[in-house]
Design goal:
Length: 594
């Protein structure tokens, strides 16, 4: 049985390369276990600086395009060359390649020649291309250095939470060595600026496995117009020292910084340990973080183990940003994110609608969220709640707060068990929150807030969100103090789009007041997404007047429930059971027109 999924296409290319193209393509010997076909391409007569390349046809060709390889040592010398010599030109499969596989190979070879070989002798082009994908090449550079026989052990993972760095800023490291490790190699190091404790960050997000070793870091800003590529990267400690002096106008020095950390320089600009006169393996990690735009590049500093008079060792390391700005925005739309970080939101209710809304608000960057709910999670809640089996019989509010705190950076979230009304009466005051969101779906809570709004919340906007039975409709009612939600609570008579009184919509359980409305996780997540979008709009843009936003299913959906339901004119008559409409209406019109 052929190892090739599309053998006709492979055989066509094989016949062409061994026939018409044999003047420049020579088939290479194939082992019995090989899943590829390879040819050597002779490029000598074409005047390219690269004389030979390898063409490879894989088992899934043409669904996976052919590969072109050059000498692996050209990685970091020529752009678009991977560690194994594979040339990466983002070639993708085209629909016609299955019928015209030879054309697919010709296209790849042509791109290889025109986009790499013909330009490769141009030094300016090479540096520009290497700079354009600098972060990818940096990671390869780090990998190459780590594989060197003379490489020093360095942390396996370095996580960095950065903030604004103008020129030079000191930081701290919390490093963790696996318990029982003989080589004492750091598994993970967490690096922060001084304003943030790396130990606290590591504990919060579960990075703190092992024995703690504290260290120091320094952040240095590199001008954005500095061409950062393999041609300009520091290759040694001396290169690093010269770069830092240059970009800080000689105001700062890594050697001076190390001296402050317990190292001293001698008259020949070399470093040695200040105590004992002997060079020894540093007990605490030292890291230089170079900031280029929003990218980070690191050098782990360690003493030389060769002689008493020599420069320290500077090893390049991959850095992974874990700060909120990168983790939650990828540095896109940061002005909105920064404003959200200042927002304080109170959410009442952590049920099937409330829990995903809270999660969305946290991931959207809301800086402070207090959540209140009196209930514990039951196993029957798991099908449509953000929490799962590990949280059953535990308080919804505290469990969700703990989950968000661990999984989402940069947010202050607190969970409080308790009745929403009693908690608000005890803890709320005007100006404490920028927004109050009620997702309890309880009439008693809406009535309570209507009566105490001025005393407890002042001018803070209040949002009530709920779903109708079977998630037939979702409503988000956002109110300002001058147009409050009425204490008569007209949710069912003024906002809801159907009368369910003649139908048995609720499944009752054999317990006092216990029961549920049947709907699935997809239904409630759709409702939560609709609600969260409107809540974020209020946070971002403010609220000039009270509004009602509704997502309403079509009449076909109500008919599919096969129970007597009377719908209002707002329900669309066209479309299938999964269709519907979204509406935006001023609250005063909803109350007047209904």
């Amino acid at each position: 049985m052929s190892v090739f999924r599309f053998p006709d296409a492979v055989h066509a290319v094989e016949a062409w390369l061994d026939g018409a193209a044999s003047s420049f393509a020579t088939k290479l010997k194939r082992s019995s276990t090989s899943k590829t076909l390879d040819w050597e391409l002779d490029l000598r007569e074409q005047g390219y600086p690269i004389e030979r390349a390898r063409l490879r046809i894989g088992a899934l060709f043409p669904a996976v395009p052919c590969e072109l390889h050059v000498a692996a040592e050209l990685c970091l010398q020529l752009p678009h060359v991977e560690e194994d010599g594979r040339v990466c030109l983002d070639e993708e499969c085209q629909p016609a390649d299955f019928e015209q596989p030879i054309a697919a190979v010709v296209r790849a070879i042509t791109r290889f020649k025109t986009e790499l070989l013909q330009r490769s002798s141009n030094a300016e082009w090479r540096e520009k291309e290497l700079h354009a994908e600098r972060l990818s090449y940096w990671n390869r550079f780090c990998d190459q250095r780590q594989k060197s026989p003379r490489a020093r052990p360095r942390p396996r993972t370095t996580l960095v939470s950065m903030d604004k760095v103008d020129s030079w800023a000191e930081g701290a490291i919390a490093a963790f060595v696996p318990k029982g490790s003989r080589e004492r190699r750091i598994q993970t190091q967490v690096v922060t600026l001084r304003a943030l404790d790396p130990v606290e960050l590591a504990n919060r997000h579960g990075f703190s496995s092992g024995t703690l070793v504290k260290g120091s870091a320094v952040f240095v800003r590199i001008p954005e117009d500095f061409r950062w590529s393999p041609l300009t990267w520091p290759q040694s400690f001396l290169d690093l020292e010269q770069l830092v002096r240059a970009v800080t106008a000689s105001q700062h020095s890594i050697a001076d910084w190390l001296s402050d950390k317990g190292w001293v320089t001698d008259s020949e600009d070399t470093l040695k340990r200040s105590k004992g006169g002997k060079i020894a393996v540093a007990t605490k990690p030292l890291l230089v973080v170079l900031c280029h735009g929003n990218e980070l590049y690191g050098y782990q500093i360690s003493p030389s183990m060769v002689s008493l008079v020599t420069l320290p060792h500077a090893a390049p390391v991959k850095l992974i940003r874990v700060d909120p700005t990168w983790s939650l925005t990828r540095d896109y739309g940061t002005s909105t994110f920064t404003r959200r970080q200042e927002k304080r939101v109170l959410v009442l209710g952590v049920g099937s609608l409330g829990s995903p809304i809270i999660d969305v608000l946290a991931r959207a960057g809301v800086g402070t969220i207090d959540i209140v709910d009196a209930q514990v999670l039951g196993p029957e809640n798991v099908s449509r709640h953000l929490l799962g089996m590990s949280s059953i019989l535990k308080g919804k509010a505290s469990e969700l707060a703990a989950r968000i705190k661990k999984e989402i950076p940069g947010i202050k979230v607190r969970g409080y068990p308790g009745d929403a009304r009693a908690w608000c009466a005890e803890n709320c005051r005007p100006g404490k929150y920028d927004l109050v969101v009620d997702v309890t779906a309880e009439s008693s809570v809406r009535i309570f807030l209507a009566h105490v709004r001025n005393a407890l919340l002042g001018n803070t906007p209040v949002i009530h969100a709920w779903v109708e039975p079977h998630c037939a409709a979702t409503h988000v009612v956002a109110t300002v103090a001058s147009e409050p939600w009425p204490a008569s609570d007209p949710a069912g008579t003024r906002v809801n789009v159907a009368d369910y009184s003649a139908a048995q919509m609720r499944v009752n359980l054999p317990a006092c007041g216990e029961g549920f409305h049947p709907y699935g996780s997809a239904d409630i997540l759709q409702a939560a997404g609709f609600s969260a979008e409107r809540i974020l709009d209020v946070l971002d843009k403010g609220l000039a007047r009270s509004m009602v936003w509704s997502s309403v299913r079509s009449q076909a959906f109500f008919d599919s429930l096969a129970v007597p339901i009377t719908t209002t004119a707002i329900v669309p008559q066209d479309g299938g059971a999964r269709d519907g409409v979204m509406l935006t209406r001023p609250l005063i019109e909803v109350l007047h027109d209904a």
